[in-house]
TrEMBL record:
InterPro entries: EFG_II (IPR041095), EFG_III (IPR009022), EFG_III/V (IPR035647), EFG_V (IPR035649), EFG_V-like (IPR000640), EFTu-like_2 (IPR004161), G_TR_CS (IPR031157), P-loop_NTPase (IPR027417)
Listed HAMAP family: EF_G_EF_2_B
Protein name: Elongation factor G
Subcellular location field: Cytoplasm
UniProt record similarity statement: Belongs to the TRAFAC class translation factor GTPase superfamily. Classic translation factor GTPase family. EF-G/EF-2 subfamily.
Pfam families: EFG_C (PF00679), EFG_III (PF14492), EFG_IV (PF03764), GTP_EFTU (PF00009), GTP_EFTU_D2 (PF03144)
The Tr-type G domain, residue ranges: 7-282
A single Gene Ontology CC term: cytoplasm
Entry binding sites for GTP: 16-23, 80-84, 134-137
Main location: cytoplasm
Any GO BP annotation: ribosome disassembly
Native species: Pelomonas aquatica
Entry-linked PANTHER family: RIBOSOME-RELEASING FACTOR 2, MITOCHONDRIAL (PTHR43261:SF1), TRANSLATION ELONGATION FACTOR G-RELATED (PTHR43261)
Length: 670
């Protein structure tokens, strides 16, 4: 294994909106690359990538899975990611460590909300992409329309490398615009390679026009090619490929391919395109220097019968089996006992990992998603992955008393594995609340508690995860002194609170000087403030987006203790918040409804009744896409209403837009 930075390797993800066909496409990739000898199907629950029983049963991807395959001498580490918004953190984690992505589009629906969200995430992480327009065998599939949607909705410079031959059930192949030839799959049989043939005459002029646009886009960003082109020389296929590769890696162009994964058409050229146009490690924009000391990012934890495995991406240096490494995020030493390359249904043990590798490590004890592994304790920490905000809570309890310990253990593991799940205790009822991004995510978590930890769980009704915050500053003075007096019972402090911008979280500071409060008690003040903020004094919801500053205080040489300061700070915070004009915040969801025009009036009327604000309406084929902001509290059970009012024909998706102050009417109802 050499460690130069241009290994013949691609680290790519497959991303899309739910149901666009990522898993179906990935299963074909495993088959064509020889990893699997038969094709797993989503619809009969036999997929290799969605190996979790819940994934197979629900027919959706929940976890991202990493798999190594080889195509024409190139190693491809492939990550299949979930499309459902509830599992979005998995997409973020994956994009953070990938060098390129294949974005799968449904040939009928085109750009869907989750494609858009994932596309923007890929923009943030500067991940070069190629697009695969799938499901071209379906009725209503429209390749040119999907390409225009990519341009309009995603602002992508989407350029087809292929044109489909035949439409809907007649879809049978593609025109390769670079080679100017046709690839036809005469049958659905995946074992039969495509037949290379002439371009059908009726597609010739369209193919030439599309090729001319492609050539233009490539030559205009390459001086040498442009000069030749202006002299009337058209560039050769190899020069065009090289130009396209550079443009794709720079993020200037998104090559678009066509196919039907389900009918086994178009997947081999997609693999060719991954090798031809997506970057090697170290070649991507903003790639780190791959030489130098070890630096790796943990991006996924998984547990199975063999114990815990941590997936890492190595950015620089070498990690050998049995090495002791440092978790630069915690400063602790860790031993990487075993290193594995993960294939569809087996693991291959590796002696060492080098820059560019994505692999599994067994033996790490205290490593979480987002931690940096390095050869030195004080090595710089790689940019971590931010967990999205949780918007929904459910109360959970074991069905029987003896499940209490197992439940606590199971929850602790789930929250470690998925930073977008959170736990807290309701101060009034004492109930355990599990919070997450949506109902589906919480249901899946509860099911895991049963299947992995053997705990039967009683789940309450999902509730909106409200927050509270301040709208003014306030200062309070608090004296904590127990009647009984005695040691450890005295603390006096002045605390000032003030609002911070949305999303800022909480900040604590101390401006106490001259030892009015000894330094060792100041952390206890912060602990008291943080604990009190977990259940805000105004409405009992977590208090966010504020700062608390300890401005003054006094202590007693004998009678003060950390606990006294903690209790005093908690009481002071509660008093201060009530003086600082507190308000309740609620999640407003960005909702997108796709409805046949016949039901448009009813759909909009219903959204307005739910206190929604309609943001826009757009025609999509013979349907209309309505976008609106609606309070999450109004969206429980929406799917049933929408089906009823549209005879089952409208669909919707939603994701968090932002937290906003609850207007007076909702505050009264809450
Ligand atoms: N007609 C047709 N159906 C397809 C094609 N590709 C996938 N499907 C079907 O579309 C459905 C969704 O496919 P999946 O591969 O599970 O989609 P996904 O994008 O992985 O979905 P999530 O993992 O849940 O995000 C399944 O019923 C597939 O059989 C295709 O090319 N043509």
């Amino acid at each position: 294994m050499n460690s130069n930075n241009l290994r013949n390797l691609r680290n790519i993800g497959v991303i899309a909106h739910v149901d666009a066909g990522k898993t179906t496409t990935t299963e074909r990739i495993l088959f064509y690359t020889g990893e699997n000898h038969r094709i797993g199907e989503v619809d009969d629950g036999s997929t290799t990538m969605d190996f979790d029983p819940q994934e197979r049963q629900r027919g959706i991807t929940i976890h991202s899975a990493a798999t190594t395959v080889h195509w024409q001498g190139t190693q491809i580490n492939l990550i299949d990611t979930p499309g459902h918004i509830d599992f979005n953190i998995e997409v973020k984690r994956s994009l953070r460590v990938l060098d390129g992505a294949v974005v799968v589009f449904d040939g009928v629906a085109g750009v869907e909300p989750q494609t858009e969200t994932n596309w923007r995430l890929a923009d943030d992480y500067r991940v070069p992409r190629i697009a695969f327009v799938n499901k071209l065998d379906r009725a209503g599939a429209d390749f040119p329309r999907v390409v225009s949607m990519m341009r309009e909705r995603l602002g992508a410079r989407a350029l087809p490398l292929q044109l489909p031959i035949g439409a809907e059930s007649e879809f049978r192949g593609v025109v390769d615009l670079l080679a100017l030839q046709a690839l036809v799959w005469d049958r659905d049989d995946a074992k039969e390679p495509p037949r290379v043939t002439e371009i059908p005459p009726e597609l010739m002029s369209a193919a030439q026009a599309a090729r001319a646009r492609l050539v233009e886009a490539v030559v205009e960003r390459d001086d040498a090619l442009l000069d030749a082109w202006l002299r009337g020389e058209s560039p050769g296929v190899d020069a065009l490929r090289a130009g396209l590769r550079a443009a794709t890696i720079a993020g200037d162009i998104v090559p678009v391919l066509a196919g039907s994964a389900f009918r086994n058409r178009g997947v081999e050229p997609l693999l060719d395109a991954v090798v031809a146009y997506l970057p090697r490690p170290g070649e991507a924009p903003g790639a780190a220097d791959t030489q130098g000391p070890l630096s790796a990012l943990a991006f996924k934890l998984s547990a199975d019968d063999h114990g815990a495995m941590v997936f890492v991406r190595v950015y620089s240096g070498v990690l050998k089996r049995g090495d002791t490494v440092f978790n630069a995020s915690t400063g602790k030493a860790e031993r990487a006992s075993r290193l594995y390359e993960i294939h569809a249904d087996r693991r291959v043990e590796r002696d060492e990992l080098v820059a560019g590798d994505i692999a599994g490590i067994v033996g790490l004890k205290d490593v979480l998603t987002g931690h940096t592994l390095a050869s030195a304790k004080d090595a710089p920490v790689l940019e971590s992955i931010e967990a999205p905000e949780a918007v929904i809570d459910v109360a959970i309890e074991p069905r029987s008393q003896d499940g209490t310990a197992a439940l606590a253990k199971g929850l602790a593991v789930l929250v470690r594995e998925d930073p977008s799940l959170r736990l807290r205790q309701d101060t009034d009822s004492g109930q355990t609340l599990l919070s997450g991004m949506g109902e589906l995510q919480l249901e899946v978590a509860v099911e895991k508690l049963r299947s992995r930890f053997g705990v039967e769980v009683q789940m309450g009704r999902p509730q909106v995860a409200y927050r509270e915050t301040l709208t003014a500053a306030a200062e309070v003075h608090h004296l904590h002194r127990k009647q009984s007096g005695g040691p450890g019972q005295f603390a006096e402090l002045t605390l000032r609170v003030a609002p911070l911008p949305r999303g800022a979280g909480m900040r604590f500071d101390s401006t106490v000087v001259g030892g009015a409060i000894p330094r060792e008690f100041i952390p206890a003040v912060e602990v008291g403030v943080r604990k009190a903020a977990l259940a805000g004094p105004f409405a009992g919801y977590p208090l966010v987006d504020f700062e608390a500053v300890l401005v003054d205080g006094s202590h007693h040489v004998r009678d003060s203790s950390a606990l006294a300061f903690e209790l005093a700070a908690a009481a002071a915070l509660r008093e201060a918040v009530l003086k600082a004009s507190p308000v309740v915040l609620e999640p407003l969801m960005a909702v997108e409804v796709i409805t046949p025009a016949d039901y448009l009036g009813d759909v909009i009327g219903d959204l307005l009744r739910r206190h929604g604000h309609v943001q826009g309406q757009d025609a999509r084929g013979n349907a209309v896409v309505v976008t609106a902001h609606v309070p999450l509290a109004q969206m429980f059970g929406y799917i049933g209403h929408l089906r009823a009012l549209s005879s089952g024909r409208a669909q919707f998706t939603m994701q968090l837009s932002h937290y906003a102050e609850v207007p007076a009417r909702a505050a009264l109802a809450a």
